[in-house]
Amino acid sequence: MKDTLTHKGFIGSVHFSAEDKVFHGKIEGINDLVAFEGNSVDELVKAFYEAVDDYLDLCKEAKKAPLKSYKGSFNVRVSPDVHGRAIAKAKQLGISLNKLVQTAIEHEVDDKHCYTFKAKQSL
After folding, report:
1. Half-sphere exposure of residue 21: CA atoms within 13 angstroms, side-chain side
2. What does the pLDDT read at residue 123?
3. How far apart are CA 30 and CA 15, in angstroms?
4. pTM, entire model
5. Max CA separation in the chain (angstroms)
6. In the 3-class helix/strand/coil scheme, how is 61-101 assigned residue by residue?
7. How does residue 113 score in pLDDT terms, banded at 50, 70 and 90?
8. Alpha-carbon gap, residue 61 to 106, rounded angstroms
9. Intra-chain end-to-end CA distance of the chain, in Å
């Protein structure tokens, strides 16, 4: 199941409120809060597209970059076993743990290889 929408390179989260009986979401990966909603899937998709287009127009008017800037570092939590095996693998390869993790992430987010994670999830 996919709980996101994409439009012009932007990702929108998708949620449903049973209490309010409405679909809603927000544009992810930006420094601002831009939300959208709809009473049906079609309304939600249309509202997302309009939200992205409006956000791009506002950014252009304000002369600011629309995408969130990332600092390039984050914490990852794994089991002690995986941590130990990763350190051992990095040592075998003669690289740092950071380089091993960076290479693994680059491999998974590369469009050519992204299927590997999806395929493993469905097993």
Report:
1. 0
2. 42
3. 18
4. 0.64
5. 55
6. HHCCCCCCCCCCCCCCCCCHHHHHHHHHHHHHHCCCHHHHH
7. low
8. 34
9. 14
At residue 68 the predicted structure's pLDDT band, cuts being 50, 70 and 90, is confident
Quote the pLDDT of residue 18: 93
- Angle at the Cα of 104 (from 72 to 73), degrees rounded to 5? 15
CA 40 to chain centre: 23
Residue pair 9/15 in contact by the 8 Å Cβ criterion: no
86-99 burial: b if 16+ Cβ within 10 Å, else e: beeebeeeeeeeee
Amino acid code (one letter) for 38: G
CB-CB contact of 16 with 6 (8 Å): no
**Quick check: 120 pLDDT over 60?**
no
CB atoms within 10 A of CB 75: 4
* Residues 99, 123: Cα–Cα separation, whole Å: 28
